[in-house]
Amino acid sequence: MALIFLALAVGVGRAMALAIREPILRFTDNGTFQIAVFSDLHYGEDIEHPQLVVINGDLITGENTYKHNSSDYVDRIVAPLVNRSLLWASTYGNHDSEFNLSRQEIFAREKRYPNSLTQSMVPMHSYSSGVSNYYLPVYSANKSDMTPKAILWFFDSRGGNEFQTVDEDGKVVAINNYVDSSVVNWFTTARDKLNDLHNTTIPSLAFFHIPVTAMLAFQQGPGVNPHKEPGINDDDPLDEQGPSDGSFNYKGQDKPFMKALVETKGLMATFSGHDHGDDWCFKWNKTLPEMDIKGDGVVLCFDRHSGYGGYGTWTRGSRQILLDERTLGSQTETWVRLEQGNISGAVVLNSTYGEDYYPVVLDTHT
Ligand SMILES: *[C@@H]1O[C@H](CO)[C@@H](O)[C@H](O)[C@H]1NC(C)=O
Ligand SMILES: *[C@@H]1O[C@H](CO)[C@@H](O)[C@H](O)[C@H]1NC(C)=O
Ligand SMILES: *[C@@H]1O[C@H](CO)[C@@H](O)[C@H](O)[C@H]1NC(C)=O
Ligand SMILES: *[C@@H]1O[C@H](CO)[C@@H](O)[C@H](O)[C@H]1NC(C)=O
Ligand SMILES: *[C@@H]1O[C@H](CO)[C@@H](O)[C@H](O)[C@H]1NC(C)=O
Ligand SMILES: *[C@@H]1O[C@H](CO)[C@@H](O)[C@H](O)[C@H]1NC(C)=O
Ligand SMILES: *[C@@H]1O[C@H](CO)[C@@H](O)[C@H](O)[C@H]1NC(C)=O
Ligand SMILES: *[C@@H]1O[C@H](CO)[C@@H](O)[C@H](O)[C@H]1NC(C)=O
Ligand SMILES: *[C@@H]1O[C@H](CO)[C@@H](O)[C@H](O)[C@H]1NC(C)=O
Fold first, then answer.
1. Are the C-beta atoms of residues 150 and 138 closer than 8 Å to each other?
2. What 8-state DSSP symbol labels residue 207?
3. Burial class (CB in 10 A: 0-12, 13-18, 19+), 107
4. What Pfam families does the record point to (predicted)?
5. Element containing residue 23 per DSSP (H, E)
6. Which residue has the higher pLDDT, 5 or 115?
7. CA-CA distance, 242 to 271, in Å (whole number)?
8. Between helices 72-83 and 103-110, what is the axis angle to 10°?
9. Which of 142, 146, 198, 325 for mutating ligand 5's site (highest number of atoms within 8 Å of CB)?
10. In this structure, is residue 197 part of a structural domain?
11. Ligand 9 contacts CB of residue 366 (under 6 A)
12. What's phi and psi for 187, nearest 5 deg?
């Protein structure tokens, strides 16, 4: 595990030095950096050797938990990662906030583990911003190079119900399902500061649990081509970011977030879960039906459903993302490692992704 110890002298003239254990993400000496994306079950780790695990939302099904022990599930979820000394970073999903379960509790429980890189960089105002909004820099294999080579952005797409709250009728109170504009403002400011500080456009990836509406517009508009966007496409129409009423009609709640994504130079791809029956990636490079935002070529991907909780029996898997320091920004390799050990939907996200011809994936169930 890439733990380095920084000895920091605290205060002028003070003899004592405080040792801070600071995990640093970096490309391996091979020039590669691999990310494995899970929702809530961990396997395939004996085959893949990721530098980071992303737990991309819906860690726990909060509807079925008890207040007195709901966050104990975190210990079970991370046990295999702790066992293998893997570092992880989480986003929280719509099932992670319920009457008996709160994101803050999950976060606090996660932070008992030094392997958790999850952070909360946007102060939470009521339920408007969520908890898991932050970024992680990934550094070069060259330890003298202090410019981050990639930035990993994590966003909280919220959802679920308020913790221990009921309305006048005794009903639970729903939380909106989209990345809030307060978070978008934090993102664009932090992004511009990072690029200014390092005087370069740093390539990036983004992770958030619920997909943006552009994925629905693509699915319902041009449509998913099984050779060009290989993947399962069974959740049709897919469920996208929006208000808490769960309507499929586009009302623009995630528009500020989508605008910020397409305006982010160097953003290579985004990754979402939520729709267990979809695992394709598409390149957003035009204006989609009913949307007045033009994609800039960013690739929007689904993860593969990993957990045994939640709906659906599609063969469980984990999306793998392989970055290479030498080709960063021009290509990203990605594939789904299935529970049975084989691979599904291996593609190269490069300038011709969307035109390149791939074999159709098998739609298998367990
Ligand atoms: C580097 O590449 C070699 C050969 O492909 C492989 O055996 C090794 O595990 C890789 N090391 C890391 C840290 O990825
Ligand atoms: C919340 O948890 C308590 C016990 O900790 C349990 O009695 C109650 O039924 C749970 N409520 C819901 C809505 O799940
Ligand atoms: C929480 O408590 C309930 C009963 O009180 C039990 O059935 C359940 O297994 C517990 N969950 C965990 C994660 O310990
Ligand atoms: C990891 O799990 C294996 C199998 O359960 C166990 O034998 C081993 O001691 C664990 N290692 C650590 C570091 O916890
Ligand atoms: C490592 O980075 C430093 C600082 O950017 C640079 O001067 C040096 O040439 C780099 N080394 C290699 C082998 O690229
Ligand atoms: C920033 O980068 C540009 C283009 O690479 C270069 O011309 C300029 O001198 C750099 N500015 C600073 C302050 O390093
Ligand atoms: C993109 O990757 C695919 C799959 O490896 C390849 O066939 C295609 O030639 C690549 N495109 C470019 C521009 O390199
Ligand atoms: C968008 O990408 C597709 C597939 O790569 C390509 O066929 C199309 O020409 C591109 N459109 C624009 C406007 O760049
Ligand atoms: C993966 O391997 C299993 C067992 O060999 C096979 O049944 C299944 O069809 C394969 N799945 C895919 C998507 O190739």
1. yes
2. E
3. buried
4. Metallophos
5. strand 17-23
6. 115
7. 17
8. 40
9. 142
10. yes
11. no
12. -60, -50
- Indicate which residue's Cα is closest to atom 5 of ligand 9: 340
* Residues 316/283, Cβ–Cβ less than 8 Å: no
- Give the separation between CA 177 and CA 157, rounded to whole angstroms: 6
Of the pLDDT bands very low, low, confident and very high (cuts 50, 70, 90), residue 7 is: very low
Does residue 209 belong to any structural domain of this protein?
Answer: yes
Query: How far is it, in rounded angstroms, from Cα 99 to Cα 55?
Result: 22
What atom in ligand 3 is closest to the CA of residue 76? Answer: 13
Are 221 and 288 in contact by the 8 Å Cβ rule? The answer is yes
75 lines ligand 3 (CB under 6 A): no
pTM above 0.85, yes or no: yes
Query: Which whole-number Å values give the CA distances from 101 to 92, 221, 261, in the listed order?
Result: 12, 37, 30
* CA 70–ligand 3 middle distance (angstroms): 8
User: What distance in Å separates the CA atoms of residue 358 and residue 365, rounded to the nearest whole number?
Assistant: 21
With respect to residue 173, please indicate whether it lies within any of the assigned structural domains.
Answer: yes
What distance in angstroms lies between residue 37's CA and the mean position of ligand 7's atoms?
24
The answer, yes or no, to whether any atom of ligand 1 lies below 6 A from the CB of 31, is no
Residue nearest to atom 5 of ligand 3 (CA): 66
Number of domains in the chain: 1
CATH code for position 172: 3.60.21.10
The residues, ordered by sequence, that sit 6+ positions from 311 with a Cβ below 8 Å of its Cβ are: 276
Dihedrals phi, psi of 197, to nearest 5 degrees: -60, -40
Residues constituting the chain? 366
Residue 268: which domain range? 26-349
Does residue 366 form part of some domain? no
DSSP assignment string, 165-197: EE-TTS-EEE--BS--HHHHHHHHHHHHHHHHH
- Whether 43 shows a pLDDT value over 60: the answer reads no
pLDDT tens digits for range 296-337 = 999 999 998 887 777 888 888 999 999 999 999 999 999 999
Please tell me the distance from the alpha carbon of residue 243 to that of residue 236, in angstroms, as a whole number.
19
